[in-house]
Amino acid sequence: MLSVSLTSRSWAFVFLVISAICALFTPIAAVKHENFKTCAQSGFCKRNRAFADKASELSSTWESPYRLDPTSITFDNGKLSGTVLKKINAAGEEVKLPLTISFLESGTARVTLDEEKRQKGEIELRNESKARKERYNEAEDWAIVGGLEPSTGAAISADADEGTTKVVYGPGGKFQAVIRHSPVGIDFRRDGQTQVRLNGEGLLNMEHWRPKVDKPEGEEKPEEPPAIPFEDDTSLWEESFGGNTDSKPRGPESVGLDITFPGFEHVYGIPEHASSLSLKQTRGGEGNYDEPYRLYNADVFEYLMDSPMTLYGAVPFMQAHKKDSTVGVFWLNGAETWVDIIKSKSTANALSMGVAGHTDTKTHWFSESGLLDVFVFLGPEPKDVIKSYSELTGYTQLPQEFSVGYHQCRWNYVTDDDVIDVDRKMDKFNIPYDVIWLDIEYTHEKKYFTWDPLTFPKTEEMHKKLDEHDRKLVAIIDPHIKNVPDYPIIEEMRSKGLAAKTKDGSDYEGWCWPGSSYWVDTFNPASIEWWKSLFRYETFKGTFHNTFIWNDMNEPSVFNGPETTMPKDNLHYGNWEHRDVHNINGMTFHNATFQAMVERKKGEVRRPFILTRSFYSGSQRLGAMWTGDNQARWDHLAASIPMTLNQGISGFPFAGADVGGFFGNPEKDLLTRWYQAGIFYPFMRGHAHIDTRRREPYLAGSPYTEIITQALRIRYSLLPAWYTAFHEASVSGAPIIRPNYYVHPGDEKGFAIDDQLYIGETGLLAKPVTTEGATSTDIYIADDEPYFDYFDYTIYQGKGHHKIDVPLEKIPLLMQGGHIIPRRDRPRRSSSLMKYDPYTLVVVLGKDGKASGELYVDDGDTYDYLEGASIHRRFLFDTETNALTSIDIGTSGPKTPAYLKDQAKVRVEKVIIVGAPDEWSGKSEVFVSEEGAKESQRRRAVEMAWFAGPKGKANYAVVRDPKVSITKGWKIDFA
């Protein structure tokens, strides 16, 4: 449910009573670009681009006006401090900018630049503003949760060149920061080679405070020339767009910096955009964009494909990758941000033997306000960069296991009987699912924390029906609170001063689904405490232990606001302007709901599940996200793969897209292919707009319902593998679905591939069909391992593209040799009903005859796993020893014994060996030994069957019911 026309909702009377408001609301037809700024319409973006253009025009004669005063440099406890001086006029007048470069124990470096006058509050605010005078310096309070320990080994090196300071740091002293004094700049090196360069192009630009000089009456121009070279002052002091005027009480305060990745052709990250995984250039040219990538969380429904236009979330984290080397930067800033990308290619010099050409990727970052705060990660592998970033911003939470299953949603299931009917029909057609969702129509007159008494009078009965099969219900709660009398929520919020404020300090009123609304300010600790109280069972009546929450519209979406959001000169807790925190806003609301859901009942602590639309760095700690209001079109299906991959490599892997497309009515082939693709989203939800036709899977009809059901059963049988991948993400930050470059960092041909994916460490390689009418597809293999079709064991081997026939019922899914995949093959109605089901292990032998894999299990509900209530096993197979073994790699704790006892009877019921050797053809049994077994059972024979593969297919063997516990160590001997 999101920003579509109010005419499609049930309160058309608003328009009849207040017809003048019509022009303020977002229309339904499609995204209107004129409602959102281009760079040329965003004052600070235009200025910073013009600054870059001028520097490029002057080229060799251009000199950055920023220098580091060498006499100011100090170094202590892993931190270099100094003062950067900015020359602001021909007379040589300079502004002081405090600089700190922190070297962290993890090997990460952090560069922060502030402005002394603002830092000390020595500025004057315009328009009698109540805003803070400092640059916003609290972004780290929301985004950073660890990894800031200073390096004990970092030290200034004595071998720096004249005019530079060199710091050696990182693992084994392999990293160096070479700090140039004039103009100021930093080269970050690994093993002596520059990997990341700051201000190499001289585009550092921190717009300093200066008093506004009004034009004397009758004069066309100000008496003084502009304070900053090449600066257009028409938007420095106020800016208008779409009928709204931004007052800018602090004047111009943007920060900009160029960041170059020498020798790197591919950069990834900075979601959210409907674009390719490998980011495109943004300064024009064939196949490139003309606009920078924009990060400004906004309600952009029916968004366009292949565009750098802003969407709902912002993660200002970028990776650069080349053969066997990955580095990254994290731009910690919560304000509107734009990123330009230019790729500079050099060709080899024919006279220079052995010197190849290379590509430098030059990026230019600029934000409207706040500090310049940049973290630099030197890798060298993708997993190293993502882990370092995740140590700072937090790992994805380990979710409740049900949330990894299938979610059934639409705007809206209209009554409690409707919910029960959908649940019943999913069972009738044997379609597994875990969660059914309610959009805003369940509320009484769009008032959150209420139920419509006419359409949802039986909430307890509804929840009990769902609970019979361990299913859950998710209800939407948004940040806008309806402004009407006799609504205790709004009365309490306003009386306690918990709403976001206008620039003059009064409560901000805007328009959203309920009509006139106020927005809870979840930057305020008191607001969070109040918000937590609203979710208690005794307060939010009609909710139960199987009710969970969906946070929508939290950019925030304001129908009559500039760019469909809140005015930038609004004020939040601490009198920070909304401009400073806009991109963080959605995360604070998500955080408040997360805290509320952890303990809805006193003494009962459970893992929450909360979906968010708006997000920022750190949101991964709180739940899942989805890609917003997509369309039922093939190109939107195709775009969902790189978009979810990009979320994963950007530290927020619990991601998905609306299966089937939110807007429009998908034809049955598209719907079917979308389900086949959706089973590979970490978060899988079918969703649809209120004006679309109903499209629950059982309505598709034969053969579509059967094909969709089969796809969902694959998802459910692989839940052990998915949950194991989620666990890995929760402890290392690793993406759950992975692009080719992450899995094969040395394979240059695969660096731009973004239409296929690997699932965790399983070796499963999927290539969803996203083209209308496709009967075949090419899947790319990057290594020499054998790959086997998941369903019939057809062998694919050799680097390059391989053709696969894909009739509608076919899902292109391969298994890479060398892996062991855990499954649960008994069909169930929901994931929780699989809790005590036995496992199947699929052993996929590599070219060396070996295979390995992992299984992680816990109760999927509580936090008991933090006290050892879990199972973590590693499985190993080696044809040299001809044995499959199970090894404990778990962490014990006080709750380990009780959990192992609970799971003691859960066994492995089948082992399938794909690629079984020919010499096994005569074998009919294997020998099993298990720890703790009685002496008579320490080595027992178990039946095995060997099957010869037809031409082009692999041999395989099946060990039936070895009767080994998932909780113990054991060995199956094939010798």
Automatic annotation (TrEMBL):
Residues annotated as domain Glycosyl hydrolase family 31 C-terminal: 733-821
Positions of the Glycoside hydrolase family 31 N-terminal domain: 98-340
Glycoside hydrolase family 31 TIM barrel domain location: 397-725
Region feature Disordered, mapped onto this chain: 211-256
Entry's EC annotation: 3.2.1.20
Record's catalysed reaction(s): Hydrolysis of terminal, non-reducing (1->4)-linked alpha-D-glucose residues with release of alpha-D-glucose
Keyword field: Endoplasmic reticulum, Glycoprotein, Glycosidase, Hydrolase, Signal
Cellular location(s): Endoplasmic reticulum
InterPro entries: Gal_mutarotase_sf_dom, GH, Glyco_hydro_31_AS, Glyco_hydro_31_C, Glyco_hydro_31_N_dom, Glyco_hydro_31_TIM, Glyco_hydro_b
Leading EC class: hydrolase
Top-rank taxon: Eukaryota
Keyword Endoplasmic reticulum belongs to the record: yes
Signal sequence range: 1-30
Annotated pathway: Glycan metabolism; N-glycan metabolism
Keyword Lyase: no
CDD domains assigned to the protein according to its UniProt record, in alphabetical order: GH31_GANC_GANAB_alpha, GH31_N
Major subcellular location class: endoplasmic reticulum
Matching PANTHER family: ALPHA-GLUCOSIDASE, BCDNA.GH04962
Similarity remark: Belongs to the glycosyl hydrolase 31 family.
Designated name of the protein: alpha-glucosidase
Source species: Phyllosticta citribraziliensis
